[in-house]
Amino acid sequence: MKGKALAKICLVLALVLGLSACATVPYTGRTQFVLMNPQQELSLGQQAAQQVRQESRVSTDPRYTNQVQRVGQRIAMAANQHDYPWSFTTIEDESLNAFALPGGKVFVNTGMVDFASSDAQLATVIAHEVAHVIARHGAERMSRVLVAQVGGAALAGAFNIQTPAGRQAFETAYGLATNVGVILPHSRSQELEADRIGLILMAKAGYNPSEAIDFWSRMMRAKDGPAPPPFLSTHPADEERLRAIRSLIPEAMRHYSP
User: Fold this and answer.
1) What string of pLDDT tens digits covers the 258 residues of the chain?
2) At what angle do helices 119-134 and 62-79 cross, to 10 degrees?
3) Whole-structure pTM over 0.85, yes or no?
4) Catalytic: which of 55, 92, 94, 129?
5) Which run of H or E residues covers position 90?
6) 8 Å CB contact between 122 and 71
7) How many whole angstroms separate alpha carbon 119 and alpha carbon 43?
8) Interatomic CA distance for residues 63 and 45, integer angstroms
9) Angle between helices 2-20 and 137-158 (to 10 degrees)
């Protein structure tokens, strides 16, 4: 009875949280589940950004920083989200990477700046990261992980698993199933959503969204080694992503004015 009672309590809690934690993603209108409020999101982002700056080599080379700031600020203005304390930091790293933290902290590697052949192609990257921020994808992922953990505890209680070995085996199996069946598919969906919003933002900022096709095509060719199976990846397959971007260009072009 204890296990069933715990499961019922967790289910009721999840339903209550679900009803009180709905938000809407800008531009796409998708309803999302977010437990974290914007203030908590901002605080976590600031802490994480400080740690990144401490552990990385922040570039002061104006060849990189001026371009990242110029493009970043135009994208931020297009996003029109004035509650976010936007910052665009360049990291001295040759790898092709950029990422964003909750609350508007965007980091771009010098390798990515070198790879982008123009402001418009760099805008493809930065707009994608800004899209993650305004869509609150980080907070959404954390919320899903929390619910998955609560669900795991409820199921373990419902099955009345008592031994440490049995509980560990259950947690491993449940974690794998949740990751492959829920977390990773949702992450891939978020990436496609960020592509869609990013194309609109770069268009509103005055960058031709068609540049994204050439940029992502070159990124596909620049990858080293075989890609992981699609169902184990945080990102959609390259071909799928490029097809989606091509199909989204007409929507983005409606927002474009050079």
Assistant:
1) 444 544 454 554 555 454 446 789 999 999 998 888 889 889 989 999 999 999 999 999 999 999 999 999 999 999 999 889 999 999 999 999 999 999 999 999 999 999 998 999 999 999 999 999 999 998 888 877 766 565 445 444 544 445 555 445 434 443 444 343 445 555 788 999 999 999 999 999 999 999 999 999 999 898 776 655 554 466 678 899 999 999 999 999 999 988
2) 50
3) no
4) 129
5) strand 87-91
6) yes
7) 31
8) 27
9) 160
Separation of alpha carbons 239 and 231, rounded Å: 14
DSSP states along 93-128: --SS-EEEETTTEEEEEHHHHHH--SHHHHHHHHHH
The residues pairing with 88 across neighbouring beta strands, listed in sequence order, are: 106
Q: Going by C-beta distance under 8 Å and a sequence separation of 6 or more, which residues neighbour residue 9?
A: 154
Quote the radius of gyration of the chain (alpha carbons, Å): 20
129 a catalytic residue: yes
Cβ atoms of 245 and 199 closer than 8 Å: yes
Hey, where are the domains in the chain? 2-253
Q: Name 100's bridge partners.
A: 106
Q: Which amino acid is at 217?
A: S
Cα 202 from Cα 124, distance rounded (Å): 7
DSSP 89: E
